[in-house]
Amino acid sequence: MSALLVLVTALAVEPGLDGVENGVEYVCSNGQNERRIQVIYPKGAPLPCEVHYIKGSDSQVLWRANNESGYCDARAAEFAEKQKEMYFPCTQNQ
After folding, report:
1. Using CA of residue 55, residue 59, residue 86, residue 66, what is the dihedral sign?
2. For the segment 1-56, what is each residue's pLDDT rounded down to a tens digit?
3. Quick check: 44 and 51 in contact, CB under 8 A?
4. What is the C-alpha separation between 45 and 88, in angstroms, rounded?
5. Would you say residue 76 has pLDDT above 70?
6. pLDDT at site 12
7. How many contiguous H segments (helices) and E segments (strands) does the chain have?
């Protein structure tokens, strides 16, 4: 019961995701295996930005930028190219 209370409390104080925008997304596949590289704009503007990498149920933020517009897009594109070298060719979604 106390775990449920903690979860409900945490969700109640979690800031809303209003204004969050997704930028470019790469979907990289090898057979049934899929990886995603996403550029996220938490405030709905070019900065700040984050590059998220999703592999199975694991998700991590690879890069963040607060001062350099275009930084996250460039890092995501470079990382998508590296995926291709590891036999996970990517397609870009917008």
Report:
1. positive
2. 443 333 333 333 334 445 778 999 999 999 999 999 999 999 988 899 999 999 99
3. no
4. 30
5. yes
6. 34
7. 2, 5
Q: Say if pTM beats, i.e. exceeds, 0.90.
A: no
> Which two tokens mark 20?
């969050």
**Eight-state DSSP code of residue 4:** H
Q: Per-residue confidence at 77, pLDDT binned at 50, 70, 90? A: very high
pLDDT score for 94: 72
Tokens of 60: 């991590």
Distance CA 69, CA 81 (A): 20
Q: How many residues does the chain have?
A: 94
Task: Identify the CA nearest to 73 among candidates 94, 43, 89.
Answer: 94
* Region class of 70: left (phi > 0), else alpha (psi between -120 and 50), else beta: left
Residue in the structure block whose two tokens are 């397609």: 91
Assigned token pair, 70: 């275009």
CA count, 13 A, side-chain hemisphere, 48: 7
